[in-house]
Amino acid sequence: MTIKLKGACIIGQSGGPTSVINASAYGVIKTALASPDITKVYGAAHGIRGVLDDVLYDMGAEDGRELALLMNTPSSALGSCRYKLKDSAVDETDYKRILEIFKKYDVRYFFYNGGNDSMDTCNKISKYMQKQGYECRIMGVPKTIDNDLFGTDHCPGFASAAKYVATTCMELYLDARVYDKGMVCVLECMGRHAGWLTGASGVATFRGMGPDLIYLPERVFDLEKFLDDVEAVYRKQGNCLVAVSEGAHDENGTLIVEAALENATVDAFGHKQLGGLAAFLAEKVKERMNVKVRAIEFSLMQRCAAHSASQTDVEESFLSGKTAVEYAVSGITDKMVGFERSFDENGKYVCNIRLIDLADVANTEKKVPDSMINAAGNGITQEFVDYVLPLLEGEARPVYEHGVPRFARLKKVRAVPNK
Amino acid sequence: MTIKLKGACIIGQSGGPTSVINASAYGVIKTALASPDITKVYGAAHGIRGVLDDVLYDMGAEDGRELALLMNTPSSALGSCRYKLKDSAVDETDYKRILEIFKKYDVRYFFYNGGNDSMDTCNKISKYMQKQGYECRIMGVPKTIDNDLFGTDHCPGFASAAKYVATTCMELYLDARVYDKGMVCVLECMGRHAGWLTGASGVATFRGMGPDLIYLPERVFDLEKFLDDVEAVYRKQGNCLVAVSEGAHDENGTLIVEAALENATVDAFGHKQLGGLAAFLAEKVKERMNVKVRAIEFSLMQRCAAHSASQTDVEESFLSGKTAVEYAVSGITDKMVGFERSFDENGKYVCNIRLIDLADVANTEKKVPDSMINAAGNGITQEFVDYVLPLLEGEARPVYEHGVPRFARLKKVRAVPNK
Question: Of A348, B113, B222, B376, whose CB is crowded by the most CB atoms within 10 A?
């Protein structure tokens, strides 16, 4: 039974963007704009920062066709942040301010679109509002290329990044072995603690055009073992393609890249800014074997290549936003919208919605299980490929104009409180 | 009037591959296989090396559907090389060997698919065969992402790389300014001496989502001026996106990257192996301004991203290969197939064929003219955009299988001489 609640809603985006995070936002915005219970739809500038700073945009003032382009526009159209809320028991300042803004704009629905840290933010706000007795329905809308959110089969954003990694690995495989003289090419993928994205390079391998060696952060990275592996492959076939996670670490948990980077900076969540691992490893290969080497970082491209997004991912991302609004309007709160996979009578992959308590999902990381990593710790298993393949299906087709994509351009009209 | 010449043909691929070099090869192979004058179609393994080593593949033994997949398969399917032929006046060894192989397989047609250095190879072989009185028609089929071949409006391969650069710049523009705290992001593009590809990033700028600053190798790169430019943009808008050519050099012609790279290696043509410029410049920005920086190299991706190739480029690449065979069969030799642009009565871009003497095209580089670079030397003009735009039109659509492209897999059956 639906319990009616009338009021405005806020949608905020947080954490590292993805190719499809705007498809989720569009799912929220479009559904909320059409809901008779939601009086106003506000977009928060740079996630929770926009709420704290009272910078909200009136989504109802946007052109409908421009909003529709969000389906294929990468990155967070409303802006993102990496702002960490203190525990309300320690410091209530931010929470009081958020409540003040919610009251000012009569906000009764709050949708937060992000990864682990964002679900933590979402959970904290939800619990605070409950404690204060302020009626507000709060829903997490997941996104992360890392695919490491707890309680969901997979995360919006992962599949498109995985499709980019797998496709690009195939293209690089062909390119990197074109000459009569071979080389060792080291590819660096994102994913600090979970190897889902790095492992997706193995889809290319299973198609006969991918990395010979794949190192996930779920295993300890042994530099000598790595060099032995590379040497063995290169001696055998005269070429070697390697994919490695940026989060490769030694048995103490110390990042391998720390040996290469003297000045690793730390962000607000205590995460290290990573990079340079591929170059470091390529250099080590050169020292050992004196062969031609190349280091390639997929850098930001792997999370923003909307031109080659997975259509399955685009549609599921929209669905997660849409469903979050539908559940909230029907009375649900304090949940994240997750996915559960099943297969129909023809064996076709089906994506079902599954609600997860925000408290459970906040700050819990889902890693690649042992059964998906090979015994030698330098590759993935068929089980991993079977897990990933259905998610890659379909090619997103952004609108093109004069040979390049036509991405959404929002007007971002500043909101005024509903009097 | 056609002068009949019956015999086998060889197609070889040479130099750095592109997303569409195989479309050209397919144009040659398909047309040659259908020609009554061409008795056999051989693919040389790794360009001229395959001729010297007597490693030729029988293209007639390949599956027709597999060959058709070459249209959207990146990199050189036959393998490439960077082998430089000595002047025949200095050392005739290689030439004698080539003539021997030509005679062994009754080769009367030779198609060489490559860039500047490859046209040099092609020209040398052509002149040698003429001198020896061995009747053989020799045609250059251009390819280069650098777009620096003389005598042609543009080169097959450039447009797809340009489309990748422009599209990726738009995506990175959106990604790199997502946070409430800005950053300086330095993008490094290929192109040693000619700035065509780096300049293509400006297409994104003219669409309102591209680099704020663009540095081509046609201008002297002044590090202090660069830092001033970046600082001015960042101070004004809190973000700065920069595209720079790998070939950025000082007033003495010394590469800027040499200051960063101690051990630059040199390839067979005396070209330096480049890389690391973006990281070097980002570091310099950090030293000066102490802001968040990121360095991104488009690396091999810009030349092998067949999944996002320009359909115009794919079709023109095929056309150049097809036309080379048609002209050769009709009696033409010693030419490269170039392009000339015109516009139809509706102002629509039309690509016409133009034959250029191999001697003219060999080793001559076409650079970006002054009128296409802005006065400050840190951007491009509308003329540049107008030049590039028609080439980017249309999106190539590779065949996909389980969410990733289905690239061609050739059997590569070793050829036996036609007795």
Answer: B113
Residues B181 and B213 in one domain: yes
| C-alpha count within 13 angstroms, C-beta hemisphere, residue B15 | 25
Cβ atoms of B367 and B146 closer than 8 Å: no
Residue A348 belongs to domain spanning: 7-144+307-364+396-405
Nearest to B304 among A175, A179, A389 (CB): A175
pLDDT category at A356 given cuts 50, 70, 90 is very high
Instruction: Quote the number of domains for chain B.
Output: 2
Mean pLDDT across the stretch A6-26? 97
Nearest-Cα distance to chain B for A361, in Å, is 24
What single-letter amino acid sits at B236? K
Q: Is B249 on the interface with A (CB under 8 A)?
A: no
ipTM above 0.85, yes or no: yes
Tens of pLDDT, residue by residue over B19-57, are 999 999 999 999 999 999 999 999 999 999 999 999 999
Mean pLDDT of chain A: 94
* B79 and chain A in contact, CB less than 8 A: yes
Return residues 2-31 of A near B (CB < 8 Å): 17
Pairing of strands A137-142, A335-343: parallel
pLDDT score, position B363 = 73
Q: What are phi and psi of A190, to 5 degrees?
A: -75, 165
In DSSP terms, A270 is beta-bridged to none
Residues of B whose CB is below 8 A from A163 = 403-404
Q: CA A251 to CA A253: how far, in whole Å?
A: 5
Query: Looking at chain B, which residue has its C-alpha nearest residue A399?
Result: B395
CB B230 within 8 A of CB B282: no
The distance of A157 to chain B (nearest Cα, Å) reads: 14
User: CA nearest B290: which of B234, B244, B212, B237?
Assistant: B234
The yes-or-no answer on residue B146 being catalytic is yes
If you write DSSP's letter for every residue of B361-396 in order, what string do you get?
HTT-BPPPPGGGB-TTSSSB-HHHHHHHHHHH-SB-
**Over the stretch A195-235, which tens digit does the pLDDT of each residue have?**
999 999 999 999 999 999 999 999 999 999 999 999 999 99
- The answer on A129 and A25 residing in a single domain is yes
Interface test with B, best of A118, A163, A171 (most B CBs within 10 A): A171
Minimum Cα–Cα distance from B394: chain A residue: A403
* B80 closest CB neighbour out of A79, A179, A276: A179
Least Cα separation, residue A404 to chain B (angstroms): 6
Rounded to 5 degrees, φ, ψ at A45 are -70, 120
Q: What is the CATH number of the domain that holds A112?
A: 3.40.50.450
Q: Are B164 and B392 in contact (CB under 8 A)?
A: no
Question: CB contacts < 8 Å between A and B, how many?
Answer: 170
Give the number of other Cβ atoms within 10 Å of residue B117's Cβ.
23
- The values of phi and psi at residue A92, to 5°, are -90, -5
Distance CA A340, CA B260 (A): 49
